[in-house]
Amino acid sequence: MAQSYIQVSGDKADQAGRHLTSSKAFVPGDLIVSFSNPLIALPDSPHLLQVCSNCLSLPHVASDPSVQGRLALPSASDPGMQLPNSKLVKACTGCGKLSYCSKACQRADWKRIHKAECKVFSRVGKEQEGKTLPTPVRAALQVMLRWTEMKDLFEGLEGHVKAFQGDGKPYADITVQALAVTEYAQLAGKDGWGVDWWAEVVKGVLCKIQTNAFHRLDLDFGQDGIFLDPTLAMVNHSCVPNAFVYFMGRNACLKAERPIEKGEEVTISYIDYTHPKYYRLENLKSYHFVCSCPRCSGNLDSYEVCKSGPSIQLNSLSLQPDISKYKSPPSSKVVSKTSITNIHRNFHAGVSPDDTGATPMSYLSTHWKACKPLVDAKLYATQPLPQIFSETVSQCSSATRYAHALCIAAFQATMVEPYLYPHPFAQSRLKTCLAIAKLLVNIVFDESDRPGAWYNKDVPFHYRLRSTFKTDIDPILLTQAMLIVVAHYGEMAHDPQWNVAIEARGILKQFEGREDREQLTTGLLEWERDPQGQTGKGIFDFMIGKPLGLLSSFAMEVMEYELGKNFPQPSPEIH
Ligand SMILES: C[S@@+](CC[C@H](N)C(=O)[O-])C[C@H]1O[C@@H](n2cnc3c(N)ncnc32)[C@H](O)[C@@H]1O
Predict the structure, then answer these.
(1) Is 285 a domain residue?
(2) pTM score of the predicted model
(3) Which among 190, 215, 240 is the end of a domain?
């Protein structure tokens, strides 16, 4: 760990155990500290042959992003996506179970752990007809194969072993996994201890991995993995966190999401904090504590938390620059918290469309209708509505109804996400900007390939939407503006090598040399220099605010058309 401005405070016996404290003030977007030497960092089992087991670089994908072809949304597991540092990976010739992107990576992993692990994998592979071990078993195996070096570090970690023992199914899984690790690592008789003794040790290790490891979940690529660093593991949870963690290869970085004072506790959210309280509590159950953050103790919703958020001022440089909207959001008192919980519970308890044979759209339609009280009260940032908007954007986009997807995405960017994530560099907000840019490009090409492809004269709002496109929106200018916003905030959201920012810069490059690009850059620079000044505000409004506002004004009609079934069904007609 380089020069660090965090320290571990408190005691394991304290109510919330130890925690991280900052020894310096940080502003939102600042890197607090990075961790490059984790105890465990491995890809999940389903991706072992695509992800390098040393540097964890993502699978190689051949095609470059290009405005010459259709661009998929960044949220899909998208084979057209260019990934940073992506390289081809080759399987280990010894066990054939995992892979590396270079000889150097193979050597480093061999020295660190794979020399011992390779023998186990080869043996288990033969016994288990080539099956790959589950991710937690591989993680615990790595610990047990290096037990002499790991013992002290692991002993210091919180494991909630007693609480896990009362958990039923999760503990039954841990027990089975522990027996497997004990067997595979051939622990019986080691240091004079028998199988049962070692199985108890491994159970403790598995509980500690569950409590302290991060899931390196990359939703964009469906890639998961485990990362455990003993200092990062000391960061406690809050549903109103002041920091967040992101991963780059074997590195984890802790960044400020809100202003952090010198001496203040640094917290992150272990879960998605945009959901209602009952759901957050359920998701925190495996950590064995009851959260008492302001969101939980006051049972506040996203609007209430956002209102007093210290980051809202930063939004003058964002797609929702009107700070007064954050301060006086729609009243959440109109729909009772119990009704919201019930709507949410039904959405999440609902059997997935895959199980019922229902199409994703009919599933979304059922829940969109159930959300009517939220829509009527304009509580668009109340879950599950944001999830329904996102999924509808994906569905419309896959069905090449780009204009519909665009209107909903514009609505998300201006009316939903700013309240969920009040910091303007939130990764979700920037991904939506990139999605808007890509949809615009797709529409431009869709229109030139097949004029009026999405247009249906029987759909009342289509005529108005088409006129808006013709007279009020310059799609190329708006695309570039969206990409500039992503490039501008990319480094605060993540790292210069963040795939979303790289992709935005890659697409922007294709517009270089255009006259409007120069105008736009000058204009946006003015806005960046003085966002509250008349010129900056005017330029922003002309280039981004007005066109996005116009597009998002169609969102409710689009949602009704797609999910409310009050309009003729999508069957675009060439006009
Ligand atoms: C990753 S560890 C964090 C470090 C931990 N406090 C320790 O001393 O080892 C996660 C555990 O910390 C505790 N914890 C984290 N956030 C908490 C909070 N907001 N309130 C109470 N306990 C918390 C819980 O015991 C949880 O299982």
Answers:
(1) no
(2) 0.91
(3) 215
